[in-house]
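Notes continue from the previous slide.

Worked example: a multi-chain complex. Inputs as given:
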Amino acid sequence: MRLPVEVKNLAVQYQGQFALKNVEFTLSENKIYGVLGRNGAGKTTLFSLLASFREATSGSVNIGGENPFENEKIMQHVHFVYNKDYKDENDHVKSILESVSRYRPHFDVEYANHLIERFKLPTDKALKKLSKGMQAAVNITIGLACRAPITIFDEAYNGMDAPTREIFYQELLEDQAQHPRIILVSTHFIAEMEYLFEEVLILNQGEVVMHEEYETLLAKGAAITGSAEEVDSFVQSMKQLNTKQLGNTKSVVVYGELSQEERKTAQAKGLEVGALSLQDIFIHLTEGED
Amino acid sequence: MQQPRNFPKVASDLFMVQGIWACGYLGIMLFVQIVKIILSLLSENEVATFFDTTFVASNIFMLVIGIISVSGFLPHYVSHGVTRRDYFKGTILSAIGLALAISIVSAALTGIFHVLTKLLKLQMDMTSLENVQMDKDGNVVGMFVKSVILTPHVDLSSNWLLATLVFSLNIFIYYVIGWLIGAAFSRLSVSKGILLMIAGILAIHAADILLSLSLGLEVPNFVAHFEMPFFIPIIILFLLIVVCLWVIRLLTKRIIVKF
């Protein structure tokens, strides 16, 4: 099942301040989309609109060609995973999953049980007694097992330790391969998670400043490494994002696609042309906006 | 893509959850009643029937669980893909079921107490809410407290079916008013919430008067001279409930789910 998302001229205002403005994008393929932005960039507001938690001030959101707000046909297929607070929850994991499964048409109980084992979630404890990391794993379990055609993970892994996050990444990729859907992932662990993304949206101050395929985005720049003098002379006319130096070896991250001629020049000068990291681009596109 | 409608599932889930709370509440009331009976046997004091005791206490129970409905249940359902409309319909159905269940269980337990009293030949003086008189010159300050205690009441032994239905209707109204207050505070500012809370208290008082008029019970002086067939106040009462539900729907129709 594929439910394309089309967002047009979207704006959300809180007490005169724009949380989102002029947001436009289309997500038409079943892929994993990285949605990146600094704190307060508008990611959670955008997700709230997709999940029908609220309405936009202006503009439109269409999912599967329909407005999702109060639309039973669409809402049941959109699942928003966030850091849900279970401090008052007396139920156990299995009863929560059972309750959720009643409202999610694609929910897979066997897969949910598999995830409970993978995350080593205790089934005999009330949710409020689980650690923050375990509670996050419960949210992830629900999010994956729902297999909603549009699944949103909004910083849902906060509190999970590195090995548990790794299990999540493995499960996400494996399950996406078998049951493709539109998955939106927001994170501040960019370096750790960028290999998951097939397409990337970067939000800054409520606006989409970049929407590209992951590979295309990485081709928008390069890391030039070599002797300090050669590197300096090669990059002097380029937009420099980041510089590192150890002894006489220098590495400069530049933004802007390198032409074939420039690549040949670099090679002739004995410079190494490496790939740009998503984190470098993200910092470049969102820096200095505090 | 089309799934079975969600509101029957919401109704049954809410009935189960709130029913468990009601079991806890009735369990405590049952324990208190047994203690009161034992004390009355020892001291020869009067004791109210279980039906009368729960008739009063259930108002508060239903008011409280009505108040927490919007903040507690609505975000849960919307976050699992249920529309606010289905939450609204499901909540009405579950509240009706809960009101009927509490009154039936209360009536049944009162019957069991009665049978046991006869079998064990216990000597007890039972009081009735009918012995409690309404203060006809009541002021606004005490209105709410009096409304809870002096709710229109039919004695179980005189007409068990009518008594149980009046019990159900009464606690259902309290649930609706609690729900209205909870919705108002969730959606509106504190000052507007307080205004709607006052409106809710007035609605409870109006509902009491209408129910008393239809049952031929004592009513405040300012309405005592109205004479009308019993079904007219009942129709007005149902219209009042519908208006309260309509306001709740308006408040929750586009409510933002915060997290």
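Summary box: Chain A touches chain B through 26 residues (CB under 8 Å). The longest helix of chain A spans residues 162-178.
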